[in-house]
Amino acid sequence: MLPELGWMPRLAAALLAIGLLTLFVVRAVRKDRREFARFRRYRSTARRQAMMRRWLIESALLFGGSAAIVLVLTWPVVAPLLSAAQAVPPIAWLRDALAGGLGIALLIGAGLGLVLLTWLGVRSARREGGVIMLGDIAALLPRNRPELGWGAALSVNAGIVEELLFRLALPALLVVVTGEPVSAFLLAALVFGALHAYQGWVGVLATSVVGLLFTVLYVASGSIVLAMLVHALFDLRTLVVIPVAVYRVHTVPGSVRFPKALAVAAPTLSPEPETPDGELPTS
Prior knowledge:
Elements: H1 7-41, H2 45-86, H3 89-99, H4 101-128, H5 145-178, H6 181-194, H7 200-221, H8 224-247
């Protein structure tokens, strides 16, 4: 049962929610899209790594910090919100189904399915010279060993701070305003998708669906840690497993200059000397 709140807490929550949502959406539409467009043009791995480091720090501070502040203010609502969402008939039916052996079977099946799909995708990519992706994210794929480290760090960070914010903190803030759990979780998942505007409309649609799946996983399981783990593994598949398995970037030193499209396997490229400022000489 959600606690009864007066109009003052609801008004304060509404103002805070409007402020946060405006900040996130405006930042995604303007700042993130502009930075990603610049990132796509970078040929120097030094510049690419600097931008990855910047994104990691900003994400940890903005999303992690926002989640911490909101959770401090709304913590008494978090557990009742989860209970109220789990009482919704479709979720209650799903939880009852997962409580038995079906839950373990689905978990094993999902894991095996993910491994199989990854293997088939890698095999197909090796034959066709590229990976089919939902959204404009090819430029994000690491291109050498140092960038792999940043890709892994970004994946783990996203799994932690984004789940804290969009599955735990933001729904708790929104339910204070709406008084209804489903709309709070749904809106938070849609905001999660909107923040990927730099990936184009296909990326926004795909990440919105993924965000809804993470939401169902959290509500059905009751474990935010499980949602964090699955989110991190999902991103690691894209930013670590695929670059290693398809392009073998773990064999490429950081001084290698890549072409615009990752259509050639990394080992076929030979390193070039760098100039003192980290930029690669052009012919």
